[in-house]
Amino acid sequence: MVFFSIRPPGRRPPRAPPGGPDHAVLDTVLFPGTAFLELAIQAGDQVGCDRVEELTLQAPLILPERGAVTLQLVVDAPDEDGHRTLNVYSRPEDADRELPWTRHATGVLAVGAAEGSYDLGGAWPPPGAEPIEVEDLYERFAAGGFGYGPSFQGLRAAWLRGDEVFAEVRPAQEQQSAATGYGLHPALLDAALHTIALAPTFQDGEGRLPFSWTGVSLHAAGAGEVRVRLTPGGADTVALTVADSIGRPVATVESLVLRKRPEQLGDAATTGGDTLYRLDWVAADTSAAVPERYPAGSWGLLGDDDFKLVGLDAHTYRDLDALPADPAAMPATVLVPCAPEPQGVADAVRTATHRALALVRAWLTEERFADSRLVFITRGAVATTPGAEVPDLAHAAVWGLVRSAQSENPDRFVLVDLDEHEGSVGALPTALALDEPQLAVRQGDITVARLATTPAPDTAPPAWDPEGTVLVTGATGTIGGVIARHLVAEGGVRHLLLAGRRGPDAEGAAELRSELAELGAEVTLAACDVADREALAALLATVPAAHPLTAVVHTAGVLDDGVVSSLTPERMDRVLRPKVDAALALYELTRDLDLSALVLFSSIAGTFGGMGQGNYSAANAFLDAFAQHCRAQGRPVQSHAWGLWAQRSDMTGKLAGADLNRLARGGIVPFSSADGARLFDAARAVDAAVVLPMRLDTAGLGGRSGDVPALLRGLVKAAPAKPARRTAAGTGTGTGAGAGAASARPEGLKQHLSSLPEAERGRFLLDLVRTTVAGVLGFDSVAAVDAERGLLDLGFDSLTAVELRNQLGKATGRRLPVTLLFDYPTSTAIAAYLEAEIAPETFTAASMAFPELDALESNLARVATDEEARSTLASRLQDLLVRLGQGPEDAEDAVAGRIDAASDDEIFDFIENELGLS
Q1: pTM (2 d.p.)
Q2: How confident is residue 551, by pLDDT bands cut at 50, 70 and 90?
C-alpha cells in the first residue's frame, strides 16, 4: 500500500492540482473533477501504472473560504492482474487527528495504456466540420450556475461534424506556463470538457459534471494548448481524444459518464515550501551499464600516462590533432587526464580552465568528433562525503565549466573523479558504460551525483556578534543590499562594513546607508575591489579595534554570459576574478581572526551547469569546492549556491523571457527577496560546507517523459515501468511548444512520418519546427512564428539557437550540427533539412508498413480464435501489399487462402516472405 499526502492550496507542492475561485458551481468553489483525474495519473506514474482503468467521483470537495485542506491518496498493492485500487481522501489541515477522512474518489490503476491516435494531425479544422459560436459561452455557463474564472476559460474555437465536436483549447499565457507541472493540466482538460455543452446530444439546458472516467491514457505531458474531439456515446456518456497543437496524441478517454448538476451542494460533501538542497554522491546502479555502447577497446587517451591510468585498453594520442582524420576511425570515447597544477591556486584555476575551454571548443568545432564523447578525468576535484577534502581546487572549477558544456551539448562530455586506489581505474570501463554525465570512483566503488533535500534545522542559525563588524562585499548590489538589511533588521548586527567597486558612488548606496542607520546600525560604505589583495588588506585595516571583524558575507560577482563555444580566456578570467581571487584573499587575510562565519555566495550554476554560463559555472564550482576544502580544515566557511532570485539585479536583469522559460523548464522557480533572506538564515543553520537555497519544481523536470536529468533522479523517482511520455507540443510560455516537440520519441515521430502521404511530411515537420521555435522563444502561440522569416530576426541568439538544436535533435533522434540555425536560417529551411536527413531511413516503402505490422503483432493472439480478426488481418495485409507496390488484384491473390488455416508462425513467415520484411 502506498500513501501520498498532498498539501493544500496556498502551501501545496507544485504538482498539486489547482482549485480555487476560478471553478465554482452554484457559487460554491469546488476542487475540479479533472484535478482528481490528474492526481490519479500522478499516483499511477509513481507505481508504474500508465492507465487509469476507472475513476469514480463519490463526493465533491468543497474548498473553504479560510483555512486549508489536506488530500491523501492511497494506492493498494497490485492484484494478480497488476491492477491497483486507488482512493482519494481529504480533511481540514488543522483538524484533530481523530477526525475521519472523507473519501472523494475511488478507482483502479492499470498497465497497458491505449495507443494514441494521430487522427487530429491532418487538416485542421477537420473537413466537413462547421464552426460553432463560442464567444458568449462562458456568460451562458455563468447564467446556468457554472462560474469559470480566467484560468478555466480556455475554449477558443469549436466546430461541429454530425454529433462530434472539435475544439481548440488555449488558456491564458500564465496558465500555459503552469502546464509543465502536470500530466494534463486540470484547467485545460476542464476547458476541453466545456465542449459537452456544444454537442447536440446535450442541448437540454441541463448542466453536467464529470462522474466516472474509464480507460484514460496520457500519451504526452505538459500540454499548454490542445485540439479536442468529443464524441457522444449514448445517454450522458462521451469519449474524448486530445492532441497537441500539431495533432500528436496527448490523451485518450475511452468513456466519461456525466451526471447532471445537483440542485445544491450540501455541507455534507465536506471541505476538505521551500527546501534547502545538497549534492550527494550515491552508489551507482551498475546493473544499468551497457558496455557495448562504448567498448573499452574503442577508447583513446590524450597525452601521456603520467596520470597513472594504467591497465586501460586505450590508444594514446598526443593531442586532438593526432586523432584520426576519418570519423569512422575515431575512438568512441576519448579520455583527458587532468593532473593537478603545480602553482598557486588562482593561477592554477586559470591554467586548468583555459586548457579545458580550448579542448571543449575544439571538440565542438570539428565534425569528426560528432559521434564521440570527451571524458575529463580528475583526481580530488570533488568531495563525495561530508567533511571530505578537495585537494584539486583548480579542476573543481573545470567541473563547473564542463557541466555547462554538458547542458549545452548533451551526451558529448563526461566528468569522472578518481582517487588513488588501484581498483578505481579498473572500475572506469563499468563507470563509463553507465548513462551518467558525472561520476566519482572511490576505493573502486562507483558513485553518481544526485541532488537531495536538506530540511532546515529546528535550531536557529548562529547569532551575529552585536559588538563585532560584519563585512558584506557586493553590498551595493541588489542581493547584497537585501542581506545587509536583513543582518540589521533581523540579525541584530550593529556594525556593518559595506564594500563594492563603486562604494558610496553606487546607485542607491546613500539610501541604503540611511535606511540601515535608521534601523540603528553604524554603516561604513567603502569603494574596494575585494579581488585586489592589497586593496582588501587596506580596507580591513580600517576596522576599529572596538568592533573587530567577526564575520564576512561575500556576495560580489559579475556575469559575462555566452555559450561555451564563444567563451575566451579573457571572458573566463573576468568572471573568475571576483569569485576565485576574492574568496582566496578574504580567507587568507582573515585566517588569523576569530571569525564566526565566512559565507560565500555561490550559484546553482556551479552544480547544474548553467547554459550559456560556462565561466560563471566554473567560478561558482570553485567556491563550493573551496568551502569544502576550508571546512575540512576546521574553518567556518560555507558556500550558499543560490537559485533564482525574483528581484532583478545587475546580474539577472538581462534575463529575457526565453531565459526565464528555459529555467522554468528545468524546474527553477524564482523566490522573493523576503524568502531569500529567510533561506539565508536556514542555510546558515545547516552544518554543511555547501547548501543550495533554491526553489525547485520537481514536476517540471522531465519525469513524465522519462527523461529526468541525472542530477535530479534522486528527487524525481522513476518507478519501474513508469510510462515514458513525451511532452506535448504547444505547451506555451514556460514549457514552450518546443519542449513538446523535443521530447517526442524519435521512433514514434518516424512512424508517424512514414504513415503520412509524401506531400504532408514536409508540412508536419514544418509544424514541428515552428512549434519548437515558439516554445524556445516563449511565444504565446505558434502563429507568431513566420515560417519564412529569419530566426535571428525573431529573437534567437547563440544560447537559444543551442536550445533549438538540442530540442529538435531529441525529437528526431539526430545529432544536429552546432551551426544548424546559421546554416538553415528559417523554419522552412530547417524543416527541409530535417526531411532530407530523416527520409533515407524513414520513408522507404517497407518502413511505411511498420506501424501496421506492430498493430498486427499486438493482436495476433486474437487471430487464432477470432474469425472477424482473421478477416481484418487479411484485409490489412492486402492494403500493405498495395502500398508496397503490388496491384490490387495481385495483392488479393497473394493473401487469399493464406490466413484461414495458418498458424501464428506461418502468418509471420508469410509477412516476411511476401512483404519483404522481418
Answers
A1: 0.66
A2: very high
Backbone angles phi, psi at 560, to 5 degrees: -150, 75
How far is 204 from 181, CA to CA, in rounded Å?
36
Contact present, 184 and 17 (Cβ < 8 Å): no
pLDDT value for 355: 97
Write out the DSSP string of 106-151. Answer: EEEEES-PPPPP-GGGSSSSPTTPEEE--TTHHHHHHHTTEEE-GG
Residues 386-444 pLDDT 10s: 999 999 999 999 999 999 999 999 999 999 999 989 899 989 999 999 989 999 999 99
Q: Give the orientation angle of helix 393-408 with respect to helix 798-812, to 10 degrees.
A: 60
Q: How far apart are CA 371 and CA 388, in angstroms?
A: 36
Q: Is the separation of the CB atoms in 452 and 714 below 8 Å?
A: yes
Q: Are 787 and 767 in contact (CB under 8 A)?
A: no
Handedness of CA 487, 488, 491, 494 (dihedral sign): positive
Residue 730 near residue 185, CB atoms below 8 Å: no
Place of cell 472539435: 166
Distance of CA 104 to the CA centre of its chain: 31
639 in Cβ contact with 587 (< 8 Å): no
Convert the pLDDT of each residue in 8-42 to its tens digit: 333 333 333 444 446 566 557 778 888 899 999 99
Report the C-alpha gap between 607 and 449 in whole angstroms: 10
Quote the cell numbers at residue 686.
Answer: 545547516
CB proximity list for 584: less than 8 A, separation 6 or greater: 345, 346, 626
341, 351 contact by CB (below 8 A): yes
Report the sign of the C-alpha dihedral through residues 479, 483, 489, 494, in that order. Answer: negative
Amino acid at 174: E
- The grid coordinates listed for 203 are 442541448
DSSP 400-439: HHHHHHHHHSTTSEEEEEE-S-HHHHHTHHHHHTSS-SEE
Rounded Cα gap, residues 345 and 342, in angstroms: 9
Can you list the alpha helix ranges (DSSP code H) found in 667-745? 673-684, 737-743
